[in-house]
Amino acid sequence: MQELYDFFLLMQQQLPAAPSCLVGSGNGVRENRALRRIAVQKFELPLRVPAHREEASFGAALWALAACGHFSSVGQAQG
User: Is the pLDDT assigned to residue 35 strictly greater than 90?
Assistant: First the structure.
């Protein structure tokens, strides 16, 4: 966790605004309550976990729908 936090601090210096939450994906975060609690405590931010499982596949499908013209944007495909 410390390595992620150190990298977070470096990235944060380059952002125009401070992050307002963390987004965690994958079964490590989804299935491990202790890991989620540690992340929230370490980063001092709320943690969001996507509603859909297989996050990478879901995201790829959204991009494909937009790229094929079924929706004008990924945002519309999400709606």
Answer: yes
Least confident segment among 19-23, 42-46, 54-58 = 54-58
pLDDT at 51: 86
Please work out, in degrees rounded to the nearest 5, the angle formed at the alpha carbon of residue 23 by the alpha carbons of 16 and 37. Answer: 120
Residues linked to residue 22 through DSSP beta bridges, in sequence order: 47
Distance CA 79, CA 65 (A): 12
Cα–Cα nearest to 23, from 55, 49, 1: 49
Contact between 48 and 22 under an 8 Å Cβ cutoff? The reply is: yes
